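User: Hey, my collaborator sent me this sequence without any context and asked if I could get a structure. I don't really work with proteins. Can you help?
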Amino acid sequence: MPATPMPLSEYLDRIEAACRPPREWTMACETVMETVGHVLDDHYGTSGPKIKAQGSYVQSLMIRGSDLDLVLYRKGRSVNSCSKNCVKRYLTTTTDAVVRSLNHLNGDVKARVKQRILHARVPIVKLVFEVRSEMIDLEADEPSSPSSAASTTSSSSGNSDGVSIKAVKPQTVEVDMSYGDEQRGECDAVIQNLISSGGEVCHKFVTLVKLWGRISGATDSFNNCLSTFALIILAIYHFKSVDMIEKRKRKGENRPIDVAFLLSSFFHWVAFNFHCEDVEIDVEEHKMHSRLPSTYCPMFIRV
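Assistant: No problem. I've predicted the 3D structure and written it out in structure-token form, which is a compact way to encode the shape of the chain:
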């Protein structure tokens, strides 16, 4: 007897669930940020540099294989007031000091420098952190998927209170550290708010579009393609447009949009409504507008 084909909506749900990072890894990211913050305070004092997250972590759009994007900043100091050489030097010395301090402390968090990319438009230092295992409550922190439980759990048992716990294997967190202003990451917070306002369907849809961008190479920055941020903006814009149209059709009836329909209409919109080879996207904080092609084009999408 032939197997019953899986409904497309269920198949997409499984893909979206499988691409989420394990809860243990997300907790490791939180530990890294907290530990690095303490090290900076101890090394430089309360008036020294601080860190904050930006990118997919703030957007709540992290998928397996994502890096944690962190920004070094100093309160009241603008990155524009520093020369590029000053930024490179400050970024290098500060990250080196963090790595030395963490390894000297011999605590639960270890770090090493993976790569310094100082000649990029935004200089970054790639760091690798290893966070040692901790015992966590299985009931409070269910894994995102069965595969995540298998890949991160070394053992599980019950304590004297009858609560199930598990020992988590050491988690590796790759960090892209840059130097910027205190305002960095605010646009990512706006993205997170827009996605949250659309509910679970919006989050699933945008996550799947982001995953497609990574797998297909549509967001390959080395090939002059669309940035991940711009692809997310397009996905949110499409969701809001479709949601508005569907609500009018349903006359206020509260029925969620099918994710498969959203994906199909999104790719149709991208492929057939952009009547040119390259589409230029210009995104500014708190507004998005179209502009005529020019020699300056920070983001592209190939259609």
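In plain terms: Confidence is low (pLDDT under 50) at residues 140-154, 283-303. You can pass these tokens on to your collaborator as they are.
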